[in-house]
Amino acid sequence: MRRLMYEAQRALASPVRNPRMATVIGRLLGAAFLICFGTGLYSHFLQDPLDWMRFATRPEFLYQVTQGTHMITGIACFPLLLAKLYIVFPDLFAYPPVRGFIHFLERASIALFVGASLVQITIGLLNTYQWYPWPFPFRQVHFALGWVLIGLLVIHIGVKLPVITRYWSKGSPVSDHLEDAVSNDRASNAEAVRLWGSTRPGGVTGRVLDYIDATPRARTRVSRRGFLTTVGVATTAVVGLTAGQTFTPLNAVNLFGPRKKGVGQQGVPVNRTSEQAKVADAAMAAGWTLTVAVAGTERSFTRSQLLALPQTEVQLPIACVEGWSQMAHWRGVRLSDLADLMSADPDTSFRLISLEERGSFSKTEMGREYVRDPLTLVALELNGETLDLEHGYPARMIAPGRPGVLQTKWLSRIEAI
């Protein structure tokens, strides 16, 4: 078995399969995971804030950038993770498989990290297409897996820190996995002689040296420069052909993103339709009113009455958790004006209730920092036209720096909390 393992490592020898290259790709992958984790936490707490949390409303495109970055780094993890797996693949054939507790911890953490990483980035990618072929709730599992991955990453870095430190800088010596395995074998001459036999004077230097001498011929298959170029091109391609759904300069080459800028009713993409929400009849009813409730006092506004109030025009993006965004012009009543009409306290937060009776975000909450922001509107028009049903007619919420799922469509009630 030991000899078979060495033969497998010999067959897999390559100039890119060395600790230095593993460290280089590992740095990029680690940075991508950390950025993904940080921006994911921000998105999660925007949707489920703790009581003490308050969020920035400026710049107004903040969530557009953070969530777009979240998706881009998540997508970049695919080629980077595959590249890292390619580099360390010969380690699967190390013998013995486990050399002690630290080695066991290292291998177990790597196995769990790789498995959890593949699950995490795969379900994240499928979420952008709103396809959920699994029985568990995406948002909760995605959040929990993020913490698991960061924990495993810390463990992995901890056990590999000596190797990472040694091969961190550009001038580090390059030693591939095969040579490391052979050098480890030299520590036990008796075992090496038993395994390889002695064909030259010096015992262990016999077939072991033949083994090393044969390695360069196997290495010529993939050059380091070619490998890095391939990884760079692959990463640039998957990011560049997707990022256009968030970042306008790349919109022309957005081939993989599920949303395209300017495509949709009134030039804005739609995530959740009125048919999915089952709100068409209620939204188009002649008797629709928006009820505002503050401190036990309620007042209902028809759409005509809302239009008769002072109107404000703003330019704000719809930025969705799936990573796409679209800048648009909105016109409507400032929420702060409605709050003042109801004599609401300046520190009042609101609960927004949609005509949609079911759905994770049929009821959302808005902190006082958004309520009092002059860009926060009960929107009645979009891009110079009456708000389309698919965009929330007869009225919807639009606020700076908020995820699209919190920009409640088909409003029916706003109440102080």
Keywords:
single chain; alpha+beta; Fumarate Reductase Cytochrome B subunit; Sulfite Oxidase, Chain A, domain 2; five-stranded antiparallel β-sheet; 417 residues
Describe the protein's architecture and organization.
The longest helix has 29 residues, at 19-47. This protein is 47% helix and 13% strand. The model is unreliable at 175-220 (pLDDT under 50). The radius of gyration is 29 Å and the shape is elongated. The strands form two sheets. The protein has a five-stranded mixed β-sheet with strand order 2-1-10-5-6. With 417 residues, it is an alpha+beta fold. It has 14 helices and ten strands. The chain has helices spanning 2-11, 19-47, 62-88, 101-128, 138-166, 177-186, 189-196, 207-219, 224-240, 274-277, 280-284, 303-308, 335-341, 368-371, and strands spanning 290-294, 297-301, 312-319, 325-334, 350-354, 363-366, 377-382, 385-386, 396-398, 411-416. Helix 2 runs antiparallel to helix 5. It has two domains: 18-175 and 223-250, Fumarate Reductase Cytochrome B subunit; 267-416, Oxidoreductase, molybdopterin-binding domain (Sulfite Oxidase, Chain A, domain 2, Alpha-Beta Complex), CATH 3.90.420.10. Pfam families: Oxidored_molyb. Residues 285-416 form the Oxidoreductase molybdopterin-binding domain. GO terms for molecular function: oxidoreductase activity. This is Molybdopterin-binding protein. Keywords: Membrane, Transmembrane, Transmembrane helix.
